[in-house]
Write a structure and sequence with these properties.
It is a multi-pass membrane protein. The protein is mainly α. Helix content is about 75%, strand content about 0%.
């Protein structure tokens, strides 16, 4: 793999880290709304978390995603860019030629498919750590942590070890089916709007978009992709939160049916506002981190090899 191909992975690493720092507090709120109980609306959820757990509550489970999301984003951007380059090479004989939208879509789907292998365990650990302070309510039965202040999982490594012991490898990949259904179309609605909006607002003759164009295009892409991904994101969150105390769902379809029967169609749009709102700054940060670090690496390479 040459340095150009590696640069995409390295730039994705920077973008992923930036997105976690910006988006994790809203991600915590989104997960509590989707899989928790008794929060009502978004504002009520924010106030409840702050009142009960202070500012620290919004950053629960962040250390693991900060490291792992950087790797995850590195894979997504690396696979996407290199697939796109390969398709341009096959179509035009030049890997650096401007890709057509069909190639952007195909590269997005490949990136979404590959990313699930890393993303499922990352999301599972993050959601278990975010949700373990919540009472589990099923019918008239309530289960709470046996000793207040002593949650089920002591941290990400303990969470992985516990899940592996109790549920095996299948437990770590719980929700993978829902994540595939979310991410394969989701990344199409991520990279395609970004490409289109960047093209619209970048002045003619510019070699690359400026930071404000990247920020706006990334934000729009994030809001669109996360907003439309919400129904499968709800299913994935519920499947992955399931199992902290009891296992309620047999799989993706069972989760969809049970959720619909118990709460109606509106349950699949729970957290859509926070998802779309959170998607804007998170994806702006991701694309800014990616594009600016890529530009810096290319500039350094040009100076090193005049």
């Amino acid at each position: 793999m040459d340095s150009v191909q590696l640069q995409d992975f390295a730039a994705g690493l920077v973008g992923g880290a930036a997105s976690v720092v910006v988006g994790h507090p809203l991600d915590t709120i989104k997960t509590r709304l989707q899989a928790g109980q008794g929060y009502g609306n978004t504002l009520n959820c924010v106030l409840t978390v702050y009142r009960n757990e202070s500012v620290v509550g919004f950053f629960k489970g962040m250390s693991f995603p900060l490291a792992s999301m950087a790797v995850y984003s590195s894979v997504v951007f690396g696979v996407f860019s290199n697939t796109q380059r390969l398709l341009s090479q096959l179509r035009h004989g030049d890997p650096d030629s401007t890709p057509v939208l069909a190639d952007v879509a195909l590269a997005s789907m490949v990136a979404g498919f590959i990313s699930v292998g890393i993303g499922t365990p990352v999301d599972l650990v993050k959601i278990r750590l975010q949700m373990q302070t919540q009472p589990y309510i099923q019918a008239n039965m309530k289960l709470k942590p046996t000793v207040p202040g002593f949650p089920v999982y002591r941290g990400p490594i303990h969470c992985i070890r516990t899940v592996l012991q109790k549920e095996g490898i299948a437990g770590i990949y719980r929700g993978a089916g829902a994540m595939l259904l979310r991410d394969v179309p989701g990344y199409c609605l991520y990279f395609i709007p970004y490409t289109i909006v960047c093209g619209w607002i970048t002045p003619d003759g510019s070699i690359s978009p400026n930071p404000s164009s990247i920020w706006l295009a990334g934000g729009v892409a994030g809001a669109i992709s996360w907003g439309t991904a919400t129904p499968m994101d709800v299913v994935k969150s519920r499947l992955q939160a399931d199992g902290v105390y009891l296992s309620k769902y047999k799989g993706t379809l069972d989760c969809i049916l049970q959720s619909y029967q118990n709460e109606g169609l509106k349950v699949f749009f729970r957290g859509i506002t926070v998802n779309a709102v959170r998607g804007f700054p998170m994806c702006s940060a991701t694309f800014l981190g990616y594009e600016l670090s890529l530009k810096a690496m290319k500039r350094d390479q040009a100076e090193t090899n005049p």
